[in-house]
Predict the structure.
Amino acid sequence: MGRVKNGILGTFSGKVGAVVGVVMRGKNYVRGLPEKSSKPATLKQIAARAKFRYFNEWRNPFSTFFAITFFNQTATHSAQNAVHRFNKDVVIGEYPDFDLDYRKIKISEGTLALPENFQLQLSDQTLLFTWKKLPSDYPNMKIDDLLAFAVFKKNDKMDIAASTCAASRGSGHYEFTLPENFHGQEVYVYGTFLSNNRQQACTSICFGLYSVPLP
């Protein structure tokens, strides 16, 4: 049953017949319910649904991480929808043999400036992030912006090592020792910076593929 708030001209929420009223991000929407089709799905439709499902199987385990790194996008999208919007081309291959193009993955998107000389080195099982240290706040960047990073295994799309508040921009460096289950693996590493209130973010970069040695 639908409900009208504030009289006949107020907002409408709920379901009445084939119409649904919803409020999203302070705006009111009225939608028609989709009609069920009796036609069998085409091969193209089956492939598209499988591709979307494959993407969600990758994204969903990391929803908590992406809820923070894409928080700056939530004025117009949910964080999870923003993940899909900015990663719509990462699933490659033909149905049913899909894979991920790891170099296209973005862990954040925004207008915040990345630091100069943002680099990564792997020493044994430790990642060393370095960047140019700023003496004070600059336009479109602050010394309390926070380093966020993610490490994905090349052959296991369900595993991640990550942080959303690793170090401040003003520190100029950060070291992270990879957990044991990443030893001996090939990994892709991504880095970005988030404002301290999560309202702004850089467009993340992929540092590339690294082979983590065994101890």
In short: The mean pLDDT is 89. Residues 43-59 form the longest helix (17 residues). Residues 192 and 204 are 5 Å apart (CA to CA).
